[in-house]
Amino acid sequence: MTTTRSDATDEFLVKAGRFFTPGEVSSDLRTVTRHGGREGDVFYRDRWSHDKVVRSTHGVNCTGSCSWKVYVKDGIITWETQQTDYPSIGPDSPEYEPRGCPRGAAFSWYTYSPTRIRYPYVRSILLEAYRAAKLDHSDPVDAWAAVVGNEHTRRAYQSARGKGGLVRSSWAEVNEMIAAAHIHTAKEHGPDRIFGFSPIPAMSMASHAAGSRFISLMGGAMLSFYDWYCDLPVASPQVFGDQTDVPESADWWNASYLIMWGANVPVTRTPDAHFMAEARYRGQKVVTVSPDYADNTKFADEWLNPHPGTDGALGMAMGHVILKEFYVDRQVPRFVEYVKKYSDMPFLITLKEKDGAYVPDKFLTASDLGDDSEGAAFKTVLIDGDSGRAVVPNGSLGFRYGEAGKGRWNLDLEGIDPALSLYGAGGSQNVQVHLPRFDVGQQDGEGGGVHTRGVPVVPVETAGGQRLVTTVYDLMLAQYGVGRDGLPGDWPQGYDDPAPYTPAWQEEITGVPASMAARIGREFAQNAEESGGRSMIILGAGTNHWFHSDTIYRTFLAMITMTGCQGVNGGGWAHYVGQEKARPITGWANLAFALDWQRPARQMIGTAFWYVNTDQWRYDNLGADLLATPLGEGRFEGATMIDTIAQSARSGWMPSFPSLNRNPIEIVREAREAGMEPAEYVKQQLLSGDMRFAIEDPDAPENWPRVLTVWRANLLGSSSKGNEYFLKHLLGTSNAVRASETPDRSDVVTWRDEGPSGKLDLLVSIDFRMTSTGLFGDILLPAATWYEKHDISSTDMHPYVHAFTPAIDPPWETKSDYDIFGDLGRKVSELAHGHLETFEDLMCIPLYHDTPDEMAVPGGVVKDWRKGEVDLIPGVTAPKLIVCERDYTTVGAKMTALGPLLETLGTVTKGVAVKTAPEMDLLRRLNGVIPDGPTAGQPAIVTAAQACEAILTLSGTTNGRVAVEGFRGVEERTGQRLADLALDNEGKRISFADTQARPVPVITSPEWSGSEHGGRRYTAFTINVERLKPWHTLTGRQHFFLDHDWMTEIGEQMPTFRPPLNMHRLYGDQGTGQGREVTVRYLTPHSKWSIHSEYQDNLFMLSLSRGGPEIWMSPQDADAIGVKDNEWIEAYNRNGVVVARSIVSHRMPKGTVFMYHAKDRTVDVPKTETSGMRGGIHNSLTRLLIKPTHVAGGYAQLSFFLNYLGPTGNQRDEVTVIRRRSQEVEY
Questions:
Q1: Other beta carbons within 10 Å of 6
Q2: Is 776 within 8 Å of 731 (Cβ atoms)?
């Protein structure tokens, strides 16, 4: 039936409207006229009006470093929007703007949020005890000593951590308490019992530098973060001698083949994802590799979904295809020339006999051939293909430091044509080599098995007799299983042969079809051949948070180097897991570690520190010997993981703080009283056994860390792998640890029958919001937000330095980090009189990378002075023993003035020295000088803005004069032309005001390996490739082969595949047997709503996500325990318990669950049935595991530098048990 409406009806409806809506209707019924003002619109117009717009950014480890407009009305921040004035990067590329994401657009909520910390707080039990002590001790230092000296009082406030009871205090009182605690700790226990933790300086450099400067002037140790976050790819310094130098995101556009491998770009690199998405429209092929159907998969042309943690097998298979089809079946001239010049492939490796065949041993060096000249033990050898003679080309480590090497530390082959292979060479023979494999035997151990292949060799006369040698390239073909006629051993017969490391072999491990693995590997190389190296792999946490992440990464880096993609725009590796690149790194480092006043500073490898001091070593069943290959020499026989840390510490390979089992101030006094030099005194005491390294008895009270300050970080809600062990042993409060202690005992490290509970005397948390760290802290200081202070930020992702500018003054009683630490420094100076004025402090300093220290262990041959294998020689076989004079009464003054060492010594970054006296004079004019006191006449850095000016002025990336001088110094060493890369910017200096006005691109500088010269997009190692500057490695080239004894012992001389650890074998069944349970692999990836220290607990983010803790699981695993979507579940293992809602999704593979990173315990966390306490954070189910090779050092690129090397805070090998719990929850 059709309904019609007449004109009369329409007229009636229109006229009747006057009874409901005021106004005059026109005679033709077409208009309604209303009279009066627009009062009804006032609210809406007022909502979007504002008094001013301020440029600022977000100090968050999301890699964005986006410039934002912050709108202010009547002194109140109202909202923010993205800046749109980035400089154009040219007509042939998308632009950098707009930059931002929903997380950034929600940040202003925190300014006035209920989670904002507005005042200083102290745990009430502690505050009452301190006030009571002050009645008996007028001196605050003595009062603090009385508080922590009373064990009953100390345990009372420790056990209250995390249980409320925080009360308001005044800034004067909390500053007094904190300063007194630091002075007492240094006086009673030593400065190296004081620690600071603050990650990712690039987020907000002045804020980081302020606290780090305070800790360093006190003689405390700053803890590393990149390795602790397990974002640090140890493979980067292993291969390149540099840490995570990568392309900016605009260079993705230049790639013609892009693999996103474990990096979910649209989620974790939101502002930059458009480069990847848009590049597809110019023909770029995009491949994603992830076990789940991740957000980036929908942008891909192909999706490979290997089983979690098996990516290395896929990488090995692709490498097999590349070597076979592009090196053996036919040789691509560009690839061959590239690896000859820029990799260690042509260098000679000695072999040694083992079990009826041979095994790879060491790089052949000039000293092996009888050369006793300067650096000969670090000059590697290859064969000249034209003459057939062994020669020493330029560029190896032996040319880097001595006078004789000037002008020869370069990659100019000077007419040498390196022989890539000895196959078919005159005088060669073929021999069998045993090689390790790790795809077998995991039911019994982690050491794998052995298979046999063959290599061509030639004999060489050495100082130690005749040795057989082969090339790295020949060993790589054997390792990857690419056979050639006539070579002995077991070889795959084709891609469908399931022998290591073919596509068919990897399919059995990863589940990726062999044909797909072969095709993607082939396409990657084919594209590199046709495009001149524009194949790129974007890597991320998905492949980096595993115990064996370094082996995973080396398979990727091998693919990139084999195909000549590194150092090429649009090619290479692009590793992103955080905002790692502090572009003005020199200025930041000198301020942060107070290198303008004293050198060196104490810096500690974070993961080892937490592993030891949270006593996770007491629960570790993974012995070092379990990782050793059957081809090893028994170097780890009977060794626990803490044994390897102890050996590394006493050998000087890695830092270890606390260092010795005595106060380092008292050690110097004792030495002086004995009439001895402190270094010699310590040596004698160690050899006699009267003194020990603290790591050898970490549970002894004299070796505990005592004071920890955390700022710009949420340690106990984000990064605390093994969170419940932190609560139990470091903090001494309630916890959900369910593990039993290991039966393994060390012969070196003292085992105390009862693990200590509560090592820290004081935990200080500085933040603008209440976090888990704040909930467990003793003193909470209210910090300014990113919209309330001056600072600077930079990132890997773009070439700009962004300013923070205060849109409002810090509200309530909040202060900027810079001002907080300045106040603390002044308070220390006030209270130090009569306690610690001028004194000497003995520091145990490791052997550093990019210094001659890295030649301490020739050939990577490990000898231990404790075992009598070598003399104890400080700075060679043991740590450097350096005496530093300190005066705590001047700490406050030094905090706010640049010291004289920048005029007398200048700066050194990555071995590049610059005299910075002109910059000091400039800063005197820009910042003014300190008028009086112990720092009179020195440039002022009283304010954060002045500190930012200093950071920018002292760095080559932001000061053309510094960049040019640095390049000229490198020119002298290399003999290559470099200064022209910055010469056109020699008169340019980026000021802090410049960064406040607009995004300003940085200057090409020797601080980094890439070039922006001429407006090109930054990518790593272009200077190495185009200007023949060596990599900072043993050979001066990119490394496939590593010959440190410990690398050999665990079978990782070359790229290989190692599966995730067999946690069931190590720790048994984690189930309780109560109800229906499912055991799954437990992963903690980065969340769309909480990237690192960006937060998910504001209303906007909670509305976009489900809010509170949740665990993603597959329908199959959900069915196994009878759980439906959004129901409460409990996850538990030996490490702790988590309660969360289930998200049942087909995107998840069976047997794997996700609990996204950094969901704090402040929102919707009920009690658990398993422990009876509130459910934990994502890291309540994890714990730390140490890999010995990550603490190897003293040798070439395997030498310590902060955030280069150190054990990683990996936790993705973990498994957990899940069951459906009661749906009635209590809080």
A1: 8
A2: yes
Distance CA 810, CA 447 (A): 56
Give the 3-state secondary structure of residue 1179.
helix
pLDDT per position as a tens digit, 276-308? 999 999 999 999 999 999 999 999 999 999 999
Query: Which residue, 705, 689, 832, 834, is CA-closest to 762?
Result: 705
Q: How far apart are the first and last CA of the chain?
A: 60
Contacts 24+ apart (CB under 8 A), 96-99: 96/250, 96/798, 96/800, 96/999, 98/271, 99/64, 99/66, 99/67, 99/271, 99/272, 99/798
Which residue has tokens 């890295």?
854
Cis peptide upstream of residue 600 (ω within 30 degrees of 0):
yes
Instruction: Find the largest Cα–Cα distance for the chain.
Output: 117
| Sheet strands (E) in 138-212 | 166-168, 194-197
Structure tokens, 663 = 């106060």
3-class DSSP assignment, residue 672: helix
Q: What is the pLDDT of residue 815?
A: 98
- Predicted pLDDT at 269: 86
- Region of 1014 on the Ramachandran plot (φ > 0 left; ψ -120 to 50 alpha; else beta): left
Residue 828 is encoded by which pair of tokens? 């220390």
Q: Is 28 exposed, middle or buried (0-12, 13-18, 19+ CB in 10 A)?
A: exposed
Instruction: Using the Cα atoms of residue 234, residue 235, residue 240 and residue 244 in order, give the sign of their dihedral.
Output: negative
What's the pLDDT tens digit per position in 827-851? 999 999 999 999 999 999 999 999 9
Please give the pLDDT value at position 2.
Answer: 54
Containing 963, the helix (H) or strand (E) segment is helix 960-974
Cβ-based burial of 932 (10 A; exposed 0-12, middle 13-18, buried ≥19): exposed
300: phi then psi, degrees, rounded to nearest 5: -90, 155
Structure-block tokens of residue 216:
């360093």
Give SS3 for 958.
Answer: coil
Task: Using alpha carbons, select from 688, 683, 689 the residue that is nearest to residue 667.
Answer: 683
Rounded-to-integer distance, Cα 1051 and Cα 630, Å: 9
Distance of alpha carbon 181 from alpha carbon 777, whole angstroms: 14
Nearest to 1036 by CA among 170, 230, 401: 401
| Residue 26: per-residue pLDDT | 81
Per-residue model confidence as pLDDT tens digits over 421-452: 999 999 999 999 999 999 999 988 899 999 99
Paired with 841 in beta bridges are 884
> What is the bridge-based pairing of β-strands 1128-1133 and 907-909?
unpaired
Residues 6+ apart with CB under 8 A from 1109: 1138, 1139, 1140, 1141, 1155, 1159, 1164, 1165, 1175, 1177, 1178
pLDDT attached to residue 267: 86
Burial class of residue 586 in the structure, from the number of CB atoms within 10 Å of its CB (0-12 exposed, 13-18 middle, 19+ buried): buried
Low-confidence ranges of the chain (pLDDT < 50): 1
pLDDT of amino acid 536? 98
Phi/psi of residue 665, each to 5°?
A: -70, -45
pLDDT at 28 (0 to 100): 79
pTM, whole model, 2 decimals? Answer: 0.95
Q: What is the reported pLDDT for 1094?
A: 58
pLDDT at 824: 98
Cα–Cα distance between 974 and 525 in angstroms, integer?
32
Report the distance separating Cα 900 and Cα 1164, nearest Å: 53
The pLDDT > 90 percentage for the chain reads 87
The per-residue pLDDT for 638 is 94
CA distances from 1008 to 910, 987, 1202 (A): 9, 20, 16
> For residue 84, which phi and psi values (nearest 5 degrees)?
-130, 35
Pull the structure tokens for residue 1120: 């196994």
pLDDT of 18: 65
Tokens encoding 1086: 């980065």
